[in-house]
Design a protein that fits this description.
- This is DUF3138 family protein.
- With 609 residues, the protein is of the alpha+beta class.
- It is 23% helix and 39% strand.
- A hairpin with a 2-residue loop joins β19 and β20.
- The longest helix is centred in the N-terminal third of the chain and has 102 residues.
- The protein is rod-shaped, with a radius of gyration of 58 Å.
- The protein starts with a helix and ends with a strand.
Amino acid sequence: MTKHLRAAIAAVLVLSTVSMQAQTGTATTPAKTTAKRAARKAPAETPLQQELREMREQMANQQSQIDALKTQLAERDAKLATVQQSVQGAEASAAAANAKAESVSTSVAANSEAVTTLNSTVTDLKSNATGIAQTISDTKKDILEKIDSPLAIRYKGLTITPVAFFAFETVYRTRSLASDVNTPFNSTPFNGAGMAHVSELNFSGRQSRVGSLFEGNTGPFKLSGYVEADFLSAGATSNDNQSNSYTLRQRQIWGQAAMKSGFILTGGQMWSLVTETKKSTDNRTENLPMTIDAQYHVGFSWERQPSIRFQQKFNNGFTAAASLEQAEFVYSATNAPTNFFIGNAGTGGGLYNLTANYSNNVAPDVIVKGTYDAKYGHFEIGGLARWFRSRYYPAVTTTAGATNDTRAAGGFYANARVSATHYADLGFHVLTGTGVGRYGTSTLPDVTVRPDGTLAPIKGTQSLVSIELHPTPKLDLFGYAGGEYAQRTTYLNSKGVLVGYAPVTSNNSGCGTETLPPNGNPSSGLGSIGVAGNAPYAPGTPANCLGATRYVMQGTAGFTYRVYSNPKYGRLQYQLQYSYLTRKAWAGVGGGANATNNMVFTSMRYYIP
């Protein structure tokens, strides 16, 4: 029972008591009046009568009080019933009110939670809206950036990426080779040559390069095409007199199909599979020496020639590859017979150079390679198979018994490149075998000839050690040491004369004695407009000097400094290279011969982004 209900009942009881007292007082007064009147009218009463009368009056008076009390009790009961009904109604109302209060409280709590959740959602929406706005802004900026500065040109379904750099380069040699920025290492003159006593300084922009990469992704496979050219080629009218009009030459031009399975097929003119790569056996990742010299470095094995390459990549970092490549061979012999031939000069209309010799090839060079890419380096191992053919005439003076003779040759090679630290890369390369001289940068001979006119492959080796340092993002330092070797290969003929490469009976007595220019007057007072190689463009050459090369060695040091590099505007860099070159001949009559050269190269290049 609530406090309010108890208070209401107490109030009702108090009111009832007061009413009862009031009624009792009111009933007594009329009774007394009536008795007095009767006493005046009636005769005198006896004591007993009086006593009875008084008793009857008291009883009547008590009955009146009882009746009054009954009435009051009835009224009280009625009021109590009303109060009880009111209390019950109040209790029901209180219960309903409590229920409503509890419902409101629950609703308030739910609303409070909903409001909290709503506030959190609104906060998230605000944050998301801010993020979306930033993303839209960044996307817009990125789109505008790609429109203003595209990484590639879009043509239909192709992406075309230009490739180019523009170079100014110089070369200084203490012994003249009459050469541009590429060095014919095996032509370094012995002291008996007039060119060994004059230096040369040449400027060049011919190593500047232009090209493009074309890529199209069909879904199942990716198609690529690449073309690259420079100006290190000389036409019939090319010279340094005025316009320096040297011709554009093909360096690389190939097409490629790459499957999602890791199989890649490439065909065209490209770097030989023998050439070291930085990743897998992928084209355009060739790991070339950082030299300015366009002939790279002694001991570096390479070719750029037409070929078709097959490669399969595996998920464990291994790649297996094989290629069929254009064959050609370099020949050298002393006291050779005349009853054979191995090729011919280029034929007019055949699109070969009329002043160059071409061998008659029986089969392409076959090259295989396996590579492994690890976190700490790149490793390669491979093999090379070659075939050399001559047509010879055993009867010498007639064609009786004429036949073709084919000789097989080949070798083994390995490359390793290790990142010793974040700032240093160490490399090692070796190629060794028979008939492998053409793949060395010095182009030592592949084959010589036997007395009967059949060919004999020459054993050779090429090796290169490199260290490349990266002390800062702008600066690279490099050092290389390499060598190439060709073995003496001779045979005794029926007349007791040694035939082949570098016979010990060869005369080297004049290799160190300078000679006069050949007799003859200049063909024209106009000098270089006259016939090439005529006086006064005809220095003396050593007499009695075979000088068959035994080995060529080179040491190099230099740096590359990137003055400015920006993915939007490109890169400007300077390079400096110093090399010391040694050419050693096989000993013969009069001993051996030795030639050296000091070379300094400089370069300024701008690479497009």
